[in-house]
Model the fold of this input.
Amino acid sequence: MLNLARNELYRLFLSPLAWVILALSQALLAYLFLSHLDYFMQIQSQIAAIPGAPGVTEMIVAPLLGNAAIVLLLISPLITMRLLAEERRNESLPLLTSAPLTAAGVVMGKFLGSFAFLLILLLMVLLMPLSLLLGSHIDLMQLASGALGLLLLIASFIAIGLFLSSLTRQPAIAAVATFSLLFFLWIVDWAGQSGHNDAGWLGWLSLLKHFEPLLQGELYTSDVAYYLIVTVTFLLLAIRKLDNERLTG
Amino acid sequence: MTKLLEANNLGKRFGQQTAVSDINIHLSRGDVLGFLGPNGAGKSTTMKMLSGNLAPTHGQILINGIDLLEQPKQAKAHIGYLPETPPLYRELTVREFLVFCGRLNLLAGKPLRIAVDKVIERCGLGDVQHRLIGQLSKGFQQRVGIAQAIVHHPAVVILDEPTSGLDPIQIRDIRHLIREVANEHSVILSTHILPEVQMLCDRVQIIAHGELLFSDSIDALSKQMHASSLQVQLAHAPSVRELSAIAGVVSVQTISDSTFRLHYQPDNDPTERLVSLAVAKGWQLRQLVAEQHSLEDVFMKIVQREEISKDA
Done:
């Protein structure tokens, strides 16, 4: 299983895709980071006098992590699309299914491999707020809570993408489907906000809704549980799908 | 003798359609079993079931005494499988890929390195081991496919049409490699090319429309191939009447002025008498060929016989 994860990660870095994704998302987020920083420097003198005014963490770190979540939403379908769909198109899946591995082993290996990749991306993003420590004081606990949120978000993105990738042999279809589903889950709470009180449960489905408190440094068990449930559910679905293929051909 | 692979009453239905019905396969240590059939006969389906990639609708598969359906993980460790399309990661080098396959099959550390070195040497991949698989020719990719199937030294190697889509020289090389593999492993080989079976296998099973039609040693198949005709070429050809007068000759067919086909009764071979007569009478024998039914003929006969008996 870990072998599979390692191989997955290694093959990812053999393709230019991984490097391009890392470089471009880093550049994009660096630009956003700098503009937030710039804005904060401008208004710092004005808000310094107000008691209880937002500090560096609220003004720079939280928006940055929020933006990182959007970027991850955009790129994770690109990472997960190839996981199983490409294996199927190259007809290399039998290599894994005829090895002494269970379907769960295959799915977990693929999951961990992609998770490790996005973890690298996340760590590189986190270096930016940490660099603020050189000249300022930031709320490390709030940063940690935001990072945890991103971590959970990544896990559920990959699980969803992995499942959709298991359904098709066209990576492009997997990518589009994953992106649509992620985006839908992201914005589904808009309906809940539009005044209909009976639509509140839609808000509970939203990936975004559970991320926002974490960004503000509020750690609720229900939010963490939500992400874990999403991740586990889609991983189980992917395992079922692979197993089913063996049974029905 | 220990049975390395045993499949009993194996069957597979896809919805209403029966792809394979009640097939029995036995493989002993050191056997090379040819699995022969026309396209669409259910060869690949059977291979997939034997390798644990497809669950049979009914039946039982034992690999080395371990039930493949109940303990797939343990059983699969004893199988090496090469599907019709070799499962390769084109962006890896040959060596990286084989190391990955070894790890997949639970090898690690020094035994892994030794196994990979050995398999690279056995499959003649030494010169290309640091090249990307995607850049190799199809013949070499097929070799890597075979290497992948034997790297963990499985008891049973299952090869699904290993020579399809290769040029004649590559086919010869791959056959050579398969024969080499057969020295250390039991092999099941599926193909629709008959001479291949004749060259490589000890036993043959013929399958058509998902049913097993023939299951015997290659010698028994050869016996069926024995025909009862001679083709002779004589520089000073005698008359047809003289030839048909030879004891045992049933009829003579004239192919050209100097070439004839002699049909004879199977238990009364006139070859010796023909040769001595040719010497005595100065016919100047140029060519004497004992004609054989090709495997194709036998194969068609077996498949057709089954179809006729089904209609009746």
About this structure: The interface with chain B takes residues 3-4, 7, 10-11, 14-15, 90-102, 246-249 of chain A (CB under 8 Å). Residues 2-248 of chain A form one domain. Chain A has a mean pLDDT of 86.
